[in-house]
Amino acid sequence: MASPSIEDRFGINDLFVRYTCALDAGDADTVIDCFAEDGTLVSPAVGEHTGRAAITAFAHRFARFQAGGSQLRHVLSNLMMTVDGNRAHATCYLTVFLTKDGKSSLMAPGRYDCELRKIGGQWKFQRRVVLHDHDYVLEGL
Questions:
Q1: 7-37 tens-digit pLDDT
Q2: What's CA 115's distance to the chain center, in Å?
Q3: Residue 111: closest CA among 42, 29, 18
Q4: Contact by Cβ (8 Å): 141, 45
Q5: How far apart, in whole angstroms, are the C-alpha atoms of residue 67 and residue 26?
Q6: Tens digits of residue pLDDT in 29-86
Q7: Structural domains of the chain, count
Q8: Structural domain range at position 57
Q9: Tell me, what CATH number does 10's domain have?
């Protein structure tokens, strides 16, 4: 398989960054826009959500978590991808910090494993799976 084009690399990188920054900012509309209409999010911390209505409910729930005084900082690294036309597979490492009540803590490290689709010239998550190195619960989410 050929290496992804520079446009695809930047587009996929932008999708990952837009998604995590929107989560951290409580920007539900941007989170929703990162997924295909029939996209799926799977996370041991927040459950499985498939389709626009479920992703919308998740994004708004996450925004309320942030608005309630919990600040998350998602840090991504080691993004790798393969592209085949308008489909792609991408993974990256994930580190998340949580600040609440004046204290910061490191959540379980892990990675994202994602199936992507290019729709209307933009990369979207078709299936986004969060894999943590160990289980944990996000209080208040």
A1: 999 999 999 999 999 999 999 999 999 999 9
A2: 12
A3: 42
A4: yes
A5: 7
A6: 999 999 999 999 999 888 899 999 999 999 999 899 888 888 999 999 999 999 999 9
A7: 1
A8: 6-130
A9: 3.10.450.50
